[in-house]
């Protein structure tokens, strides 16, 4: 705590002692991970050709099991500019207890690894910080450096402009949304409900909306801010369907952020109560095999208000809500088919209106979920350059003896030759949060800021996009051509920098 931000400056090359450095990918895939490895490898070779890079396999568990591969030039070269984390794999094991830290120390000591690079999101970098602190306090002499990764875009703050992978993933999704919009506008017979990954935060949905101008895009943070109920949201979508139908447009595109369900107050209360119920009745509940009995078991034990919400949901959604939680105790939102839930509920609402003579149009819907399509795409030029720079910078931080830092590259709105590389103390990115009854330091997930310029830009245009058909079809990622096309960043980043 209390260490300064550092920047890399040109200087004399000094000879550095040979080192062994370990790296892991932690959590979900994000385009550009292999370029982080390439940058790290190249910098280590430039610092001392005897340096060695070890890739621990399958994420944090590789550090605990001492499962690794030596990353040599043949392996690294074969993966440059490719998507995915398949060179060494990734995983979601949490590395957080002192026992685990001691095991990592023991394994690294045996291999003579004296620095670890953790490529991960908010939770993984929080844990990287704890690991660095543990090594310092116990005089273990292993350095830890983080790298900001996640397509979700929620690892950002005053110091970190964007996590890697967000740029490529949103460009891939926007291409696909554009293709669907073109189809919708050609056939003119379907409403397409498209759920987009992003876990809790709606950065991906917002960026894709800015890129493609759909008729509707829900932003979970706004839903929470306005305390909208499920019925409000369904009403809002159904009204848009009716409004467009009255103009002869029986088609449209609606974007739905993956985490929406957790931001609707009554659903949030339901999920919280289900979490408690499932934890308290684990054994009894696991012994029930039939879906209907599982549903009844929970319905009988919920409070009356939450039971009412639960009972109103289609059976598939009830079952999805009771699926296993992830290792962080979160509902696996990628497995809850919110897009289908909304289609069913909008259909019901429109039928009610039809019976009352308030709707006489057509509504036929298709559902889609875009997530895995974009997480391992070949990195855009931006992500390829950004990731390589993050990896190269991580090696420089290690060579400079830094620990508890996150590799940082700033000025990303400018061209790559003007970027500023350096390191941010991880503690500077942390806040105290109450978890399981204790105040613990964590890197806070950055949700969409409703006072931000990107959100304001969206709000200024959404009515027009809803009423009319102003679709934009961005097409595929460009790798060659003028820099303003091939190297352009996300609209979120551009608008944020313009203020
Ligand atoms: P990270 O936060 O680990 O980068 O994961 C991102 C993400 O793609 C989320 O958008 C999504 O909710 C989740 O991973 C899906 O997890 P899984 O890969 O385990 O299905």
In summary, what is this structure?
By secondary structure, the protein is α/β, with parallel strands linked by helices. The protein contains 21 helices and 15 strands. 1,6-di-O-phosphono-beta-D-fructofuranose binds next to loops.
Sequence-ordered SSE layout with sheet pairings:
Blueprint: E1 6-7, E2 20-26, H1 33-47, E3 52-56, H2 60-65, E4 68-70, H3 73-79, E5 90-91, H4 98-111, E6 115-120, H5 122-137, E7 143-148, H6 166-187, E8 191-196, H7 203-212, E9 216-217, H8 220-225, H9 230-246, E10 252-257, H10 260-263, H11 265-280, H12 282-286, H13 291-301, H14 304-311, H15 315-321, H16 338-355, E11 365-370, H17 372-375, H18 381-399, E12 405-410, E13 420-425, E14 430-435, E15 438-443, H19 453-467, H20 483-486, H21 491-498
Parallel strand pairs: 2-3, 2-5, 2-6, 6-7, 7-12, 8-10, 8-11, 9-10
Antiparallel strand pairs: 1-13, 3-4, 12-13, 14-15
Helix pairs in contact: 1-3, 1-18, 6-7, 7-19, 9-16, 11-14
Bound molecules: 1,6-di-O-phosphono-beta-D-fructofuranose (FBP).
1,6-di-O-phosphono-beta-D-fructofuranose is lined by residues 27-28, 30, 121, 150-152, 197-199, 258, 333-334, 371, 375.
Q: What structural keywords apply?
A:
globular, four-stranded parallel β-sheet, alpha/beta, binds 1,6-di-O-phosphono-beta-D-fructofuranose, 21 helices, 499 residues, single chain
């Amino acid at each position: 705590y209390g260490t300064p931000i550092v920047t890399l400056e040109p200087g004399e090359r000094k000879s550095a002692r040979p080192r062994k450095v370990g790296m892991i990918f932690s959590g979900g895939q994000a385009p550009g991970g292999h370029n982080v490895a390439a940058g790290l490898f190249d910098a280590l070779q430039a610092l001392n050709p005897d340096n060695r890079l070890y890739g621990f396999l399958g994420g944090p568990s590789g550090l605990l099991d001492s499962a690794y591969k030596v990353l040599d030039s043949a392996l690294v070269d074969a993966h440059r500019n490719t998507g995915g984390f398949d060179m060494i794999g990734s995983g979601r094991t949490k590395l957080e207890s002192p026992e685990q830290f001691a095991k990592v120390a023991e394994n690294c000591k045996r291999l003579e690894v004296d620095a670890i690079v953790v490529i991960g999101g908010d939770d993984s970098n929080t844990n990287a910080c704890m690991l660095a602190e543990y090594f310092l306090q116990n005089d273990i002499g292993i350095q830890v450096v983080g790298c900001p990764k996640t397509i979700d875009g929620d690892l950002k703050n005053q110091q970190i402009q964007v996590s890697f992978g967000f740029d490529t993933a949103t460009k891939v999704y926007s291409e696909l949304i554009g293709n669907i919009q073109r189809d919708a506008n050609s056939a003119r017979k379907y409403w397409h409900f498209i759920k987009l990954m992003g876990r809790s935060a709606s950065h991906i949905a917002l960026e894709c909306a800015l890129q493609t101008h759909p008729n509707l895009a829900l932003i979970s943070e706004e839903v929470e801010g306005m305390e909208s109920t499920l019925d409000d949201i369904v009403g809002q979508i159904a009204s848009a369907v009716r409004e467009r139908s009255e103009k002869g447009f029986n088609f449209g595109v609606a974007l739905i952020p993956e985490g929406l369900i957790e931001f609707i107050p009554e659903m949030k209360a339901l999920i919280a109560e289900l979490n408690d119920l499932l934890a308290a009745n684990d054994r009894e509940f696991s012994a029930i095999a039939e879906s209907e009995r599982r549903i009844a078991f929970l319905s009988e034990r919920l409070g009356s208000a939450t039971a009412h919400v639960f009972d109103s949901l289609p059976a598939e959604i009830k079952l999805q809500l009771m699926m296993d939680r992830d290792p962080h105790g979160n509902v696996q939102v990628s497995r809850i088919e919110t897009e289908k839930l909304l289609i069913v509920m909008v259909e019901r609402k429109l039928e009610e209106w039809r019976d009352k003579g308030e709707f006489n149009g057509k509504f036929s819907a298709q559902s889609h979920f875009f997530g895995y399509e974009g997480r391992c795409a070949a990195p855009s030029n931006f992500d390829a350059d950004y990731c390589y720079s993050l990896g190269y910078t991580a090696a420089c931080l290690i060579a400079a003896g830094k620990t508890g830092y996150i590799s940082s590259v700033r000025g990303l709105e400018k061209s790559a030759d003007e970027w500023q590389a350096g390191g941010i103390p991880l503690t500077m990115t942390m806040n105290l949060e109450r978890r399981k009854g204790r105040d613990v330091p964590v890197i806070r997930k950055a949700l969409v800021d409703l006072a931000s310029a990107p959100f304001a830009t969206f709000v200024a245009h959404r009515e027009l996009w809803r009423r009319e058909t102003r679709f934009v079809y961005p097409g595929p990622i460009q790798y060659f051509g003028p820099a303003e096309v091939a190297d352009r960043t996300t609209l979120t980043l551009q608008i944020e920098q313009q203020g």
